[in-house]
Specification:
With about 70 residues, this protein is an all-alpha fold. The protein is built from two helices and no strands. The chain has helices at about 1-10, 20-55.
């Protein structure tokens, strides 16, 4: 029974533990992209609201906090 289980569910290779699976990497990238889009939309909405109220505003510029 263990032999069948081992063939059906092979163990991951020893070097694969430090790298996320391709699916997890894609999910993480989508989350980062969604968060970036959300932050930019919020910044633009705040700027638009300030412009409508007549307050001085700063131009919308991309955030340059990314590393690597």
């Amino acid at each position: 029974m263990r032999e069948l289980s081992a063939r059906a569910f092979p163990e991951l290779e020893a070097g694969g533990d430090d790298q996320p699976s391709p699916i997890e990497a894609a999910r993480a990238q989508r989350r980062r992209d969604a968060e970036e889009t959300r932050r930019l939309a919020l910044k633009r909405a705040r700027e638009d609201r300030a412009r409508r109220s007549g307050a001085p505003t700063e131009p919308v510029t991309p955030d340059v906090r990314h590393t690597a």
